[in-house]
Specification:
This protein is α+β, with helices and mostly antiparallel strands. The protein contains 10 helices and 4 strands. The chain has a 4-stranded mixed β-sheet, covered by helices on one side. Strand 1 (2-6), helix 1 and strand 2 form a beta-alpha-beta unit. The chain starts with a strand and ends in a 7-residue tail after the last helix.
Length: 232
């Protein structure tokens, strides 16, 4: 059994989708990050940087409970455990890892900063808004070029690299990030293909009604971006 500590964000959607794709038994343990539940000491023991998602595999290596935090690491763990979306061939596996790291090191941080200055920052900071928007567009250009010659990010087969990247490019995220998908036809084709996967639809639907994008309340802003972030 996988205990999935989760809230409906792009990073949370990654692992929700992967659990559905992998066909592993799991239960959702909601962590309401808008209400500050990520700072609960019991959760911090599981995820030291108080971020969702995290998992506890009650039947981990050696048959013992095993904790994994950081969404990219969770995707790799679930792929290896299930044998799904994880090539056996070493060369192909490292293509998957490269594009997974591209998402973790570029798309997540830059899109996240773009989203903050477009939809969350209480002050209008034009330089920051335009800087991170331009960086987001540049990363879309990288994705579009890659997908112009490849069905999926790591090659002809769908993989955890796609699972990691897709939630950051959904229509609701594109609206926040000020992205016109018609300018990136290959990303559009790729996204529409992934949209149709039943496991993706089920993963995105987990706690969908709880998802909030932009315009946070004072309590939510403090929980997401306030001083408590730095006092753990």
């Amino acid at each position: 059994m996988i205990r999935h500590y989760y809230w409906p964000t792009p990073n949370g959607h990654k692992t929700a989708i992967m659990l559905e794709e992998a066909g592993l038994e799991y239960e959702v343990r909601p962590v309401n990050i808008l209400a500050g539940e990520q700072f609960d000491p019991a959760f911090v023991k599981i995820s030291p940087n108080h971020r969702i998602p995290a998992i506890v595999d009650t039947d981990g290596p050696g048959g013992k409970p095993y904790t994994v935090f950081e969404s990219g690491a969770i995707l790799m763990y679930l792929a290896e455990k299930s044998g799904k979306l994880w090539p056996r061939d070493m060369a192909q596996r490292y293509r998957v890892i490269q594009w997974l790291m591209f998402q973790m090191g570029n798309i997540g941080p830059i899109f996240g900063q773009n989203g903050y200055f477009q939809g969350y920052c209480p002050e209008d900071v034009p330089l920051a808004r335009e800087r991170y928007h331009k960086m987001t567009v540049q990363l879309y250009e990288v994705l579009d070029e890659r997908l112009s010659g490849s069905a999926y990010l790591a090659g002809p087969d769908y993989s955890i690299a796609d699972v990691a990247t897709y939630p950051w490019t959904t229509p609701v995220q594109r609206k926040l990030h000020r992205i016109d998908i018609e300018s990136f036809p290959h990303v559009k084709r790729w996204g529409e293909t992934i949209d149709k996967r039943p496991a993706v639809q089920r993963g995105i639907a987990v706690f969908e009604v709880q998802m909030k994008i932009g315009s946070p309340t004072e309590e939510a802003y403090e929980s997401l971006f306030g001083e408590k972030q730095y006092s753990q």
